[in-house]
Specification:
The protein is an all-alpha fold. Helix content is about 75%, strand content about 0%. The mean pLDDT is about 80.
Length: about 210
């Protein structure tokens, strides 16, 4: 909406982050196979996810509006997340008794899926609420403002039908609202990083079997 991309163009710009996530998972497997360790790998992974959020925030019109910078941040965060998901799962299995490993694995995927849904819902709620409040505040045109708010939230294509001044205001509001969603996710990811740091307190880093 901010840069005027359609759904296909926006989706293509997400591909590097998705690819990085897959490569991160593979990288984590190779590292754990070689070293038999997972604790510091997990801490480094979630730290890199937090680090990757900074170029996303800075390049989402906080300092500059730059799609390439956002893509770089997505790659860093995606790679770290791919590592963290794999290493934390292996750490969980390594600390579970053999008879509990199936349940532990199922619980891992349960909370992973639940976290994704809750995270997306919270981020979308913050973004939509911020967008609604900003549009109503900046479009001081009575009933017209309410109609614009409604149609913009229903379809991004509606933005193209607006006059140039209103289009600028709407896109600026979208930029601010999206950044508020990014800030929320940065806070959530920061606490994920902290939880990975205390992972060793809650579990023992048992040696992983690398040879039969």
């Amino acid at each position: 909406a901010v840069d005027g991309f359609n759904a296909t163009q926006a989706g293509v710009r997400l591909l590097p982050g998705i690819t990085a996530g897959v490569l991160g998972s593979l990288f984590a497997g190779l590292i754990m196979q070689r070293t038999g360790k997972f604790y510091w790998l997990t801490v480094a992974a979630y730290t890199s996810v937090v680090v990757g959020m900074f170029p996303i925030l800075l390049c989402s019109d906080l300092v500059v509006n730059n799609t390439f910078g956002i893509s770089v941040g997505l790659v860093i965060s995606g790679f770290g997340n791919g590592i963290g998901v794999t290493s934390s799962l292996i750490g969980l299995i390594a600390n579970a008794a053999p008879q509990d490993q199936a349940v532990a694995t199922a619980c891992s995927y349960l909370f992973r899926s639940m976290g994704s849904v809750i995270g997306l819902s919270l981020s979308a709620t913050v973004t939509q609420q911020s967008l609604r409040v900003q549009l109503q505040d900046r479009l001081n045109s009575g009933n017209d403002a309410a109609e614009i708010v409604k149609k913009v939230r229903e379809s991004l294509e509606y933005i193209k039908t607006l006059d140039s001044n209103t289009r600028f205001v709407v896109r600026d509001c979208y930029s601010n609202a999206t950044r508020h969603g990014f800030i929320l996710m940065t806070v959530v990811i920061f606490f994920s990083m902290l939880s990975s740091c205390v992972f060793e307190v809650a579990s023992k880093e048992l040696p992983l079997l690398t040879d039969q």
